[in-house]
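Task: sequence in, structure out. Protein: RNA-binding protein.
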Amino acid sequence: MTLTAGTRQTLRVAREVSPYGFFLSDGESEVLLHYTELIGSKPHIDDSVDVFIYYDSEDRIAATMKQSLLHLGELARLRVVDVHPRLGCFLEMGLSRHLLLPLSELPESIPYRPLPGDEVYVTMRHDKIGRLVAKTAFEEELSPLVFSAPATWKNSWVEGWVTKSLQMGSFVIVDGGVVGFGVYGLIPSPDRTRALRLGERVRARVTFIREDGRVNLSMTERKEVGRVEDADRILAFLKERPGGAMPYSDETEAELIKKRFGISKSAFKRALGKLMREGIVTQKGSWTHLATEQEESGAAGGATREEGTEGK
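Result:
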């Protein structure tokens, strides 16, 4: 038997060395079970104890009776507890030390990288010298665990965890609840309202269920619902502006629209069109203004005449 970091083994208590703890043996090698790593009463010489093998904070092989949240070769979703700009992320694994998710496993784009509190799907492996590190779990590890989305999910709002973020979109494992592990989904870039981090919790709407059971998602409401919400957001913004005017219109670049309002340019134009049809706003060049009372009454009269025409 070998003392392999990341595995749980049953070892014999060989001797006690105060003030350190107990040395455990597999018949060939020994490992220290520190007093601080005991659970329950102290064992006796020749007792068998079940322990997890890992490397302590000084990179020495060690044993603990605590339960690790992840074992070698397994997959789990672990919480980010700290971020180091040169090393990577440190994950909670239920032990006295944290598990490193190396910088090489993180997205190149900094806005897509996890922050403390995010939860990342990872597997456990050894680095070049045998220490335990995490590896980001991608489609290869996740796809065998997912199930096909039921047809009833169409247009429903779901929640899940981001497993990968790219410029073209973000991949998500949608919560499976009591049904199973989860459903694989994609939020295409146009359907994101902002950049999504690896491990971020996200709420999105199921827009399409594919033949393979995966889903397409959107962070926005359906057009008819979103148009009203977007119009309310634009109107509230205008009312807070000096003179009730803003330097945004149909001519404004899409990136500026998304940065200011968190919506696509097409959604912005739909909402603006609604406000203009209702006579609430007007456009002058590249600016949008709250309509004056005279302009509002004129628009209302136009609407009345149109209604009268429709009635004929």
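Confidence is low (pLDDT under 50) at residues 302-312.
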